[in-house]
Amino acid sequence: MIFELIRLQWLKSFRSTSFAKSAAVTGLLIFLAILLLSYVLMAGLLLANIIDKLAEGQDPIFVVNSSLIYFFLGEFMYRYFIQKLPVIELESLLHLPIGKRKIMNILLGRSFFSPLNIIALLLFLPFGISKVAEAHGMLGLIGWIGTIVLLSWSLHWFMLWFKQKFEDSFIGLVVVFVVLILGGGLSYLGWFNMGELLAPLFIYSMTSLIPVIGFLGLCILTYFITYRFYLNNAYLEDLTEEEEVRFANQSVGFFSRFGDAGEMANLEWKLIIRHKKSRSYLMLSAFFLLYGLIFYTNPVYQDEGVSAIFIFVGIFITGIFMIQYGQLFLSWNSSNFDFFINRRNGIESLIRGKYLLFISISCLCFLLSVPYAYFGWKFLLIHFVTFIFNIGVLIHLLIYVALWKPKPMDLNKGAMFNYEGVGAAQFLIIIPLIVIPYAIYLPFALLINDYVGLAALGSVGLLGLIFSKKLININVKRVLNQRYEVSSSFRQEV
Predict the structure, then answer these.
(1) Which residues cross the membrane (predicted)?
(2) Less packed terminus of the chain by CB within 10 Å, N or C?
(3) Residue 303 region, left (φ>0) first, then alpha (ψ -120 to 50), else beta?
């Protein structure tokens, strides 16, 4: 039965009209996985030397055990964003005369063969051989590395359950935020160190096999919970259960004041809420609002003036959604683009509606960034200036570049490692994002002072706002001129 399912999966991939493209993408991903795993192994081989230099005079084993909890919190995060669910394969197998229990075991077992599940082993086994085995013997090494690996594998099974049940929901978002806070916020604020609280557990695993036996039981338990959940919900209507319709159909009353453009902005907002990929971009935008904490609290950038790096940080924070979502400007509407072509003023209303949505969410991002004033009023000034520049100038430049040969995509697929809709234009967008703001800011900042540079940047953004109608018309006319070419490319198979 296992070989039969493997044969069916192979035939499905081989007979696909996009087999060559899928094979190329798979080959690239395999190469990247091998490259990243080699970096992890190299880090594992050098871990002991790194600890000796960073924590000179301290016991390296205690330092690693005190930091392991942060590794697992980080593993929770990257598994949440990267680890894939086996639901799509399930949809293609339920109609076959095969028992659901066998399908579940095979799908869950296949999901286990992932590069993510050997990261912990590659990273900590070399350190365990060089340090733990020397201090506690082979039995201590087995107990210690077994505890780490089994906890990592337990996270694998837990994440399959967690993502299927809570992904893209408010509960899931709250849990991820809590993990972020536990991972760095509490230690940064000095409230308590989670690593030191849980270090005795990993230290005990080097002298006793009780922890490894306990985590083996946890691994089996999480597999059983995931298996039962998938088995009990092994129906298409359950595994593809829609979000609460009332929330998905909720309109933003503010947009209704802007006529057809406001109507299109409301439709675009509903598109974002209803579909997996667009919701992922919205959630990531919320996470990236914390980007400033990396730089604004770094002593390297603490001076009396305005560090040049803060300009990029301000543009990123106040325009993150516009940058992420706007780079695929028309690809979001690839499945219904013909509808806008056949509607009177449909294209113009669509473009203006997107502008309205981008500006509104950028305004919200700016308001949410106001608490950065806690680190200094200059950060609020930087955010205000970059916000004006974003909605006055950068938004038009990003959309102009994004309109170059847009590609179709499936909205229901996740955002991580999904390259549908991505072309050369999405890589070129980085040029206006970095080059143009600094081309305006730096000459004034270097010749006069930093605040004159900010004034110049804000003035250019203000001019963009004054002439916004003419700038919007440029992109509207561009879409109208190439609407049939774009419509034809959207009909191609993704």
Answers:
(1) 21-48, 60-82, 103-129, 141-162, 169-189, 201-225, 280-297, 309-334, 355-374, 380-403, 424-445, 451-468
(2) N
(3) beta
Which residue in this structure is represented by tokens 């003035």? 459
Predicted TM-score of the model (pTM): 0.61
Whole-number Å distance between alpha carbons of 92 and 178: 36
234 and 228 in contact (C-beta within 8 Å)? no
Tell which of 216, 239, 262 closes a domain. 239
Is 5 domain-assigned?
no
Residues 460 and 321 in one domain: yes
d(CA 287, CA 296): 16
Whether 367 and 231 share a structural domain: no
Instruction: Residue 420: name the closest of 316, 334, 319, 357 by CA.
Output: 334
| 213 and 95 together in one domain | yes
Q: What is the Cβ-side half-sphere exposure of residue 70, based on CA atoms within 13 angstroms?
A: 16
* Residue 118: partners with Cβ closer than 8 Å, 6 or more residues away: 37
Structure tokens at 485: 């070419």
Side-chain-side CA neighbours of residue 176 (13 Å): 21
C-alpha distances out from residue 285 to 208, 282, 291, 297, 368, Å: 45, 5, 10, 21, 11
Whether residues 348 and 233 share a domain: the answer is: no
- Non-local (6+) Cβ contacts of 144 within 8 A are 128, 132, 136, 202, 205, 206
Shared domain check, 263 and 208: no
CB 175 within 8 A of CB 106: no
| CA 78 – CA 85 distance, rounded (Å) | 14
Structural domain harbouring 208: 32-239
Question: Do 396 and 472 contact (CB within 8 A), yes or no?
Answer: yes
- At residue 411's C-alpha, the angle toward residues 409 and 413, to 5°, is 95
Give Cα 118 distance to the centre of its chain.
22
Residues in the chain: 494
In single-letter form, the type of residue at position 30 comes to I
Number of domains forming the structure of the chain: 2
